[in-house]
Amino acid sequence: MRYAEDHKAQTHQRILHEAAARFRKDGIGATGLQPLMKALGLTHGGFYAHFKSKDDLVEKALRCAVDQMEESNKQALAQDNSAEAFIDLYLSTAHRDSPDKGCPLPTMAAELGQRGQPSEITDELIQRMLATLESRLPGTDNSDQSLMLMSTLVGALVLSRSARDPALANRILDTTRKQLKKHISEV
């Protein structure tokens, strides 16, 4: 049976999307190539027709996750260009409860750093998030404010995801959201 001309490209994209979701949800180390490929109905050996190594996949899947997150954020924030709207979106229970669809920083950045394999894509994502926050903050020189906000957002999301008690998990998001908005209004 002959495949369509774009079959390999479509398969490549399917692998990227699945890996991006699994890396964000489970982490890089916990995501094996064999289960990843099996979930897509593909063979482990077929992986190497698309990627040189797992590290190659990690870089490309991280880029895919960044692109997915940015597209999702554009749609969600199209009506409101404020820092408060970004905070609400980032610290939402939907974002907390769906790591496979959200920002890759809370899951992947720590793991890449621990492995001694920081990524240029992580730097790019940090810079993009900082630029997004800076453009939404009142005033002109917002680089330190945006860095503090981003660090707090990512940290709060990590803590909320790690809390076993649902009330505590929600309190982390709610309190951080409220305090960040209060801080912004005072600046």
Descriptive labels:
187 residues, Tetracycline Repressor, domain 2, mainly alpha, elongated, single chain
Summarize the structure.
The protein is mainly α. The protein is 70% helix and 0% strand.
Describe the structure.
- This protein is mostly helical.
- The chain has a single domain, classed as Tetracycline Repressor, domain 2 (Orthogonal Bundle).
- It is built from 9 helices and no strands.
CATH architecture: Orthogonal Bundle
Beta strand count? 0
State the helicity in percent bands. Answer: over 70%
| Percentage of β-strand residues | under 5%
Number of domains: 1
Q: Which structural class matches the secondary elements?
A: mainly alpha
| Main CATH class | Mainly Alpha
Question: CATH superfamily membership, which one?
Answer: Tetracycline Repressor, domain 2
Sketch the topology as an H/E string, one letter per element: HHHHHHHHH
Quickly count the helices.
Answer: 9
User: How can the largest sheet be summarized?
Assistant: none
Give me the CATH fold name. Tetracycline Repressor, domain 2
Through-space gap between termini: 64 Å
List unreliable stretches of 5+ residues: none
How much is the average pLDDT? Answer: 88
Rg is 18 Å
- The dominant shape is elongated
